[in-house]
Amino acid sequence: MLLRELGKTGIRLPEIGFGTWNYSGGVEPLRAAIECGARLIDTAESYGTEEIVGEAIKGRRHQVFLASKALPRNFRRRDLLAAAERSLRRLGTDHIDLYQLHWPNLTIPIEEPMRAMEELVDTGKIRFIGVSNFSVRDMVNAQAALSKQRIAANQVRYSLIERTIEGEPN
Predict the structure, then answer these.
(1) What confidence tens digit (pLDDT) does each residue in 127-152 have?
(2) For an engineered disulfide with 116, which of 27, 77, 92, 93 has Cβ 3.0 to 4.6 Å away?
(3) Residue 72 buriedness (CB in 10 A; 0-12 / 13-18 / 19+)
(4) Residue of 23, 47, 99, 158 with catalytic role
């Protein structure tokens, strides 16, 4: 498996992760994937799979780089902090390696969720800040709103079928 650095974090991860969107395979196949070397597990509060992932990584947390995402409706500071706590509880862990804003929310100024994300880093509840499905402009604005941290990743939809991101201008 090819490894790549996550942003400028020094963390090297497999180029391909185990995504749990629309996942219904249960705990055992996910545990088997971890045993076979799956190290990057991706979930989100909206996927409804955080509890399954939590059960699968129980006793194996040290083997897994865990990524999860918050819904845009939770981008107010108080709501984002509460969403992270709920995800931590469902995942059965004390920290999420990469916590991401799942989609842009144009009704809430980006400064508010980004300050909350830095607060989550400061308290050790997340290790790295990420975004998902952000345009280049959205990502630049999100980075500008951070005072101490860097955005480690922008997870975009990309597959053999969905390749629109290839045409997006820098």
Answers:
(1) 999 999 999 999 999 999 999 999 99
(2) 77
(3) middle
(4) 47
**Which tokens hold the place of 95?**
């920290």
3-class SS string, 25-90: CCHHHHHHHHHCCCCEEECCHHHCCHHHHHHHHCCCHHHCEEEEEECHHHCCHHHHHHHHHHHHHH
Query: What's phi and psi for 64, nearest 5 deg?
Result: -120, 140
What strands lie across the sheet with 18-19, from one edge to the other?
Answer: 18-19, 40-42, 65-70, 96-101, 126-132, 151-155
Catalytic annotation on 23? no
Distance from C-alpha of 129 to C-alpha of 141, rounded to nearest angstrom: 14
Could you report the per-residue pLDDT of 71-93, keeping only the tens digit for each?
A: 999 999 999 999 999 999 999 99
Cα 119 from Cα 155, distance rounded (Å) = 21
Please report the sign of the dihedral spanned by the C-alpha atoms of residue 115, residue 117, residue 118, residue 123. Answer: positive
Interior angle at CA 47, CA 13 and CA 164, nearest 5: 65
What one-letter code names the amino acid at 122?
D
